[in-house]
Amino acid sequence: MISEWIFYIILYLLAAVFTAFFAYCLYVHHIHQKYDHIPGPPRDNFLLGHSPSLTKALYSDDSLIYDLFLQWAEKYGPVYRINTLHYVTIVVYCPEATKTIMMSPKYTKDPFVYRRVFNLFGKRFLGYGLITAVDHDIWYRQRRIMDPAFSSSYLRSLISTFDEMSERLMDKLEEIANNKTPAVMHDLVNCVTLDVICKVAFGVDLNFLTQKDSPFQNAVELCLKGMTFDVRDPLFRIIPKNWKLIQQVREATELLRKTGEKWIQNRKTAVKNGEDVPKDILTQILKSAEEQNVTSTEDFEQMLDNFVTFFMAGQETTANQLSFAIMELGRNPEIYKRAKAEVDEVLGTKREISNEDLGKLTYLSQVLKETLRLYPTAPGTNRWLHEDMIINGIKIPGGCSVMFNSFVSQRLEKFFKDPLKFDPKRFDENAPKPYYTYYPFALGPRTCIGQVFSQMEAKVVLAKLLQRFEFSLVPGQSFDIKDTGTLRPKSGVICNIKQCS
C-alpha cells in the first residue's frame, strides 16, 4: 500500500515537472515570436538561446566576449537581439537611441543584471551602491550625499595627494631602474591607485608599493574575479571544482566590508570626540549624511556598499587605463615623443604638479581619452526598456534589457575612422566630437560620479612618469586584453625603465 502511494506521488511529481517544463517552453516560444523580427545571430539552441556562444567566448583565451558583440554588430547592424532562456537583450549602438535612453532617468538600470551583484556568492557585495542601485529614489538620495565629495572645488584640493602618491611610484621606479630589472607597470600603478583611494577617500595610508601579498589588495582582486564568474555564468557556483574559489571570494567580500565598517566607525568616533579628521571623501559623506539625518542600519549598510564600490570601480579602472596608456605610448614612438615634449614644456624640472599645470597638458588629455576609446575599462551598461520603442526603424517591444556597449561603438569604422589605430588627434579641440558613440563613463544622470577624480589622478601619474623616466616595452609580450569584469592588459605591460638624464 505504501509503495503504491509512493509510486503515485512520484508519478504526480513527474507530471507536474513535465507540465511546468512544457509551460516554460511555451513561454520561451512566445518570447521568440515577440522579438524574432529583430535582427540577430541564429540561436545555438531553442531553450538556451545564444548562451553556448556567449559561454564559449567568456572562457576563451584567444578573444573577448566583446569581440563577439563587435562581430555581431558589424554583421547585424545597429540593433540586434541576444536570447538567453526567456531573457532578451537588445544590443544598441544607434546614437539617437543611445541619447534618448541613457540621458533619461525614466529608463532605469536593468534589475536582472545589477541585482546579481547585490550579493556575491551569498555575501552582500555592492548592495545598493551608486553603481548598482536600480531604484531611482535610492540612487538619487545617495548621489545627493556623495556629490559634495566630488565637487570641482574639493577635487582641486586633492592634487597634492595625487602628487604625493605618484612620487612613491617614482621612487619605486628609480629603484627598479637602478637595478636594471623590468617593471610590470600594471602591478605598480594598481598599487598607486589603491593607495590614492585609501588616502583620499578614507584617510588611511597603506603604501601598497612596500607590501607583498597584501590581504586587502588580494581581496579586491578576488572579488573582481568572482564577480565576473557569478554575473556571467549562472552555473559556476554549482560546479564542485569552483567551490574553493567561491569560498575564497566569500571571505574576501567579508574582509572588504569589515574593513569598511572599521574605518567608518573609527571616523565617526573621531568626529564625535572632536578630534581633527582629514577633509577627505569619508568626512564629506558623513557630514552630508548627518545633515540629511541618515542614521538607520540600512543607511550604514549602503555606506559599506559604496565603500566596496569605490575600491572595485575607482581603483581598478584607473589602473587599467594607465596601463593601456603606457602600453600604447610604448608602441607608438611619435605619440610618446609628443606627449613627453608637452610634459617637459609644462613641468620642466618641477616636482609638484598644480591644477594649472594639468589644464595645460592638453595632448596628454587626448592620449588618455583615446586610451579609453580603444580600451574602455568598464565597457558596457544596461537599461530596462519598460515601454515599446522604435529604434532605427525597428519596433522593440517593452519588457526587455537594452545593452549599450562602448567597446562596440568605439571600435566601429562608421563612427571612428581606422578604429584600431591609436590616434589621440581624434580628441583635438578642433576635431569633430563623437555624437553619443563615446561614453567610457556612461551618459546621463547615471554617469560615473568619479570620472573627473579618475582623470586627474591618471594625468598626474602619467605626467610624472613621462617627466622622470624613459620607458620601452619588453619585446615579445602580448598586447591582448584580459577581461576580469573590467578590461586590463593581459601581459601587465612589462617595461624597461631608465631615468631621464
UniProtKB/TrEMBL annotation:
GO cellular component terms attached to this protein's record: dendrite; endoplasmic reticulum membrane; postsynapse; presynapse
Keyword Transmembrane helix attached: yes
Pfam families, per database record: p450
Keyword NAD part of the UniProt annotation: no
Membrane topology: Single-pass membrane protein
Its EC number(s): 1.14.14.25
BP terms from Gene Ontology: cholesterol catabolic process
Localization annotation: Cell projection, Dendrite; Endoplasmic reticulum membrane; Microsome membrane; Postsynapse
Keywords: Cell projection, Cholesterol metabolism, Endoplasmic reticulum, Heme, Iron, Lipid metabolism, Membrane, Metal-binding, Microsome, Monooxygenase, Oxidoreductase, Steroid metabolism, Sterol metabolism, Synapse, Transmembrane, Transmembrane helix
Residues that, per the record, bind heme: 448
Signal peptide as annotated in the record: none
Cofactor(s) required, per the database record: heme
Catalysis performed (reactions): (24S)-hydroxycholesterol + reduced [NADPH--hemoprotein reductase] + O2 = (24S,25R)-24,26-dihydroxycholesterol + oxidized [NADPH--hemoprotein reductase] + H2O + H(+); 4beta-hydroxycholesterol + reduced [NADPH--hemoprotein reductase] + O2 = 4beta,24S-dihydroxycholesterol + oxidized [NADPH--hemoprotein reductase] + H2O + H(+); testosterone + reduced [NADPH--hemoprotein reductase] + O2 = 6beta,17beta-dihydroxyandrost-4-en-3-one + oxidized [NADPH--hemoprotein reductase] + H2O + H(+); 7-dehydrocholesterol + reduced [NADPH--hemoprotein reductase] + O2 = cholesta-5,7-dien-3beta,25-diol + oxidized [NADPH--hemoprotein reductase] + H2O + H(+)
Record-stated family: Belongs to the cytochrome P450 family.
The protein, known as: Cholesterol 24-hydroxylase
Organism of this sequence: Danio rerio
